[in-house]
C-alpha cells in the first residue's frame, strides 16, 4: 500500500535577527504516521512547529499540506487545511468550560469534521466537560489542548512535549491515547525529550541540532548514531 | 437622607460610567490597544447628537443607535490601517499609546476648526420633562433616562460577548490571540470588528453624555479618557464584567466625596486608580496580576 504524504516541509529557513533558528529543514509525513521530533533545547523543534502551523512566517522553503502550498497562509487558514498543534504551555480559554473550549474549536476550525462529540471521550475529559478551565490542573489542561486541536479535525497534528512532567503510568496512558488518534488517520509529529516514551509510540524519528536535521530514521539507529549521541551527551 | 441621595445618584452615574468605559476595555482587551482618543470619540458622539437634535430634531436617545453603524465602519477601517504597524512593533502597547495620543490631538483640533471651541448643550426637555422622585428625594429626570439607556447598551455588549459566535471568538482572542488562531479564528478580522464595535459603543455613549457632564466641547476628551481609564482599571483591565463594577464603585465614591469632601472630589479618579494599582493591581474582579 502506498501512503500519501499529508505534510511536506521543504528546506524551511527561519531567522530571528542574526540567529538562524531553522536552516533548511525538510520533513515528510504520511497519513496516520507517527514521527518523533527530537533534539536538545533550542535546536529549533518548537520553531518548526510554529512555522508549519503558521504562527511564524518562514524566510525560505515551503510547506505543503495534502499537496497544497500553504507557505504564505496565516495560522487560522492552515487550521482549515488540516494542520494543528498543541502548545508546550497550554493556555485554555480560561473563562470558558472544557466543553465550550472544544465547541469553539469545532465551530471555527473543524466544521467538516465528525470529531466534536468524540474528542472529550478520546482525551479522557468527558467527566470534566462542565468544569471551567481555570480549575484544571496542568495535565488536564494539556489534554484539553489536545482535545481542542482534535476538534478542528486535523490531518496533521504536532504534539509539543505533551509528556513533560507526567509519571510513567500517565505516560503509558498518553501513548495509548496518541496511538488511538493516529488510527483515525491523523499524522502525528511528536516533539519530545523522552526517548523511552517515543520508542513506545514510533520507530521513525527526526533529530534536529542548531536548526538543521542531523538524523532521520529508525529510533534504535538514532540511539547508536555518533552525531546524535554527541548532541545529546556532549560527546 | 443626603447619604441615600448620594448613593442613588452614584448608582445612576455608575451605570453611565460603565457605559462610558466599556468600549475602552473592549478595545484594550482584544489587541492591548491603549486608546487615548477614547474621550475624543465620546466628544464626537456628543457633537453628532447635538447636530442631529438641532438640525433634524432627532432625539439623543435615537442618536445613541444612529451613531453606531458609521463608527463601526470607521473603526474597522482605522484598525486595518494600524494593525500592520502594531503587529510588527516590538512594543505595540507603547506604539498604540503614541499613535492614539496623536489621533486624540487631531480629532480635538479638527472639531475645534470646524465647530469652534464653545461648549454646546442639549436641553433636558429633549429627553424628559421634570424631575423623578425616589425614596423622598428629587433627581433630574435625565439621570434616570441616561442610566436606563446605559443598562441595555452594556447588556448588549455582554450578550454580544457571551451569546454570539463572534463574541465568543472575541473572548478567545482576549484570552490569547495565538491560541485563538490555533482553533481557526481569524484574529485580524475579529479584532478589526471588535475595534469597530468598541468605538461605536464609545460614540454611542457620547450621544447622551452631555446630559451627565453638562455639555459637549472639543477639549473634554482628555478628562473623559482619564475617567474611563480609572473605571476599567478599578474593575479589571480586559474584564468586561469588571467595567460595570468599576463604574458603580467610581460613581458611588464620587457622589459620596461630593457630599462629604466636595473640594476633594475631583481627586477621586486618581485616588481610586492609585489605591487599586497599589493594593490590587489586577482590579477588583481581576484574578491575577497582569504581566503586560
TrEMBL record, chain A:
Keywords: ATP-binding, Nucleotide-binding, Transport. The keyword Nucleotide-binding applies. One of its GO terms (cellular component) is plasma membrane. One of its GO terms (molecular function) is ATP binding. Residues 7-235 form the ABC transporter domain. It comes from the Bacteria. This is Branched-chain amino acid transport system ATP-binding protein. The lineage of its organism: Bacteria, Bacillati, Actinomycetota, Acidimicrobiia, Acidimicrobiales.
From TrEMBL, chain B:
The keyword Transcription regulation does not apply. InterPro entries: ABC_transp_permease (IPR001851), BCAA_transport_permease (IPR052157). Its main location: membrane. The keyword Ribosomal protein does not apply. Keywords: Amino-acid transport, Cell membrane, Membrane, Transmembrane, Transmembrane helix, Transport. Signal peptide: none annotated. The chain crosses the membrane at residues 6-28, 35-55, 61-82, 94-115, 141-162, 192-213, 225-252, 259-279. It is a multi-pass membrane protein. GO terms for biological process: amino acid transport. It holds the Pfam family BPD_transp_2. GO terms for cellular component: plasma membrane. One of its GO terms (molecular function) is transmembrane transporter activity. It comes from the Bacteria. It is found in: Cell membrane. Belongs to the binding-protein-dependent transport system permease family. LivHM subfamily. This is Amino acid/amide ABC transporter membrane protein 1, HAAT family. The lineage of its organism: Bacteria, Bacillati, Actinomycetota, Acidimicrobiia, Acidimicrobiales.
Amino acid at each position: 500500500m502506498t501512503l500519501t504524504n499529508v505534510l511536506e516541509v521543504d528546506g524551511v529557513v527561519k531567522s530571528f535577527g542574526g540567529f538562524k533558528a531553522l536552516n533548511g529543514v525538510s520533513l515528510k509525513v504520511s497519513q496516520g504516521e507517527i514521527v518523533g521530533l527530537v533534539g536538545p533545547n533550542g535546536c529549533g523543534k518548537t520553531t518548526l512547529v510554529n512555522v508549519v502551523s503558521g504562527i511564524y512566517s518562514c524566510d525560505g522553503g515551503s510547506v505543503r499540506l495534502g499537496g497544497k502550498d500553504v507557505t504564505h497562509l496565516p495560522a487560522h487558514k492552515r487550521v482549515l487545511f488540516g494542520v494543528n498543534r498543541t502548545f508546550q504551555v497550554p493556555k485554555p480559554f480560561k473563562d470558558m468550560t472544557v466543553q465550550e473550549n472544544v465547541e469553539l474549536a469545532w465551530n471555527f476550525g473543524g466544521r467538516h469534521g465528525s470529531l466534536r462529540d468524540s474528542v472529550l471521550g478520546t482525551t479522557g475529559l468527558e467527566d470534566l466537560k462542565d468544569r471551567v478551565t481555570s480549575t484544571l490542573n496542568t495535565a488536564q489542561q494539556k489534554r484539553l489542548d489536545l482535545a481542542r486541536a482534535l476538534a478542528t479535525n486535523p490531518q496533521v497534528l504536532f504534539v509539543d512535549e505533551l509528556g513533560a512532567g507526567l509519571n510513567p503510568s500517565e505516560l503509558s496512558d498518553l501513548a495509548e491515547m496518541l496511538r488511538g488518534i493516529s488510527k483515525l488517520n491523523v499524522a502525528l509529529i511528536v516533539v519530545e525529550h523522552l526517548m523511552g516514551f517515543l520508542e513506545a509510540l514510533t520507530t521513525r524519528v527526526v533529530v534536529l541540532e542548531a536548526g538543521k536535521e542531523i538524523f532521520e530514521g529508525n529510533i534504535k539507529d538514532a540511539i547508536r548514531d555518533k552525531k546524535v549521541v554527541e548532541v545529546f551527551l556532549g560527546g | 437622607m443626603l447619604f441615600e441621595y448620594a448613593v442613588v445618584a452614584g448608582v445612576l452615574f455608575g451605570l453611565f460610567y460603565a457605559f462610558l468605559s466599556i468600549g475602552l476595555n473592549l478595545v484594550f482587551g482584544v489587541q492591548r490597544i491603549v486608546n487615548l482618543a477614547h474621550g475624543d470619540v465620546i466628544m464626537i458622539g456628543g457633537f453628532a447628537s447635538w447636530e442631529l437634535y438641532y438640525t433634524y430634531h432627532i432625539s439623543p436617545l435615537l442618536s445613541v443607535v444612529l451613531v453606531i453603524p458609521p463608527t463601526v465602519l470607521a473603526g474597522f477601517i482605522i484598525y486595518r490601517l494600524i494593525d500592520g504597524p502594531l503587529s510588527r512593533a516590538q512594543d505595540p502597547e507603547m506604539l498604540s499609546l503614541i499613535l492614539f495620543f496623536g489621533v486624540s490631538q487631531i480629532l480635538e483640533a479638527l472639531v475645534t476648526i470646524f465647530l469652534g471651541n464653545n461648549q454646546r448643550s442639549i436641553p433636558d426637555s429633549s429627553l424628559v420633562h421634570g424631575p423623578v422622585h425616589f425614596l423622598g428625594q428629587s433627581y433630574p429626570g435625565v439621570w434616570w433616562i441616561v442610566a436606563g439607556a446605559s443598562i441595555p447598551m452594556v447588556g448588549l455588549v455582554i450578550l454580544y460577548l457571551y451569546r454570539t459566535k463572534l463574541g465568543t471568538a472575541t473572548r478567545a482572542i482576549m484570552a490569547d490571540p495565538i491560541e485563538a488562531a490555533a482553533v481557526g479564528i481569524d484574529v485580524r478580522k475579529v479584532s478589526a470588528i471588535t475595534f469597530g464595535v468598541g468605538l461605536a459603543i464609545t460614540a454611542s455613549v457620547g450621544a447622551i453624555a452631555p446630559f451627565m457632564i453638562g455639555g459637549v466641547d472639543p477639549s473634554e476628551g482628555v478628562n473623559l479618557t482619564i475617567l474611563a481609564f480609572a473605571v476599567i482599571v478599578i474593575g479589571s483591565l480586559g474584564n468586561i464584567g469588571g467595567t460595570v463594577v468599576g463604574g458603580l464603585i467610581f460613581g458611588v465614591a464620587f457622589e459620596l466625596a461630593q457630599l462629604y469632601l466636595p473640594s476633594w472630589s475631583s481627586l477621586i479618579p486618581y485616588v481610586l486608580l492609585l489605591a487599586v494599582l497599589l493594593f490590587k493591581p489586577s482590579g477588583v474582579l481581576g484574578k491575577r496580576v497582569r504581566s503586560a
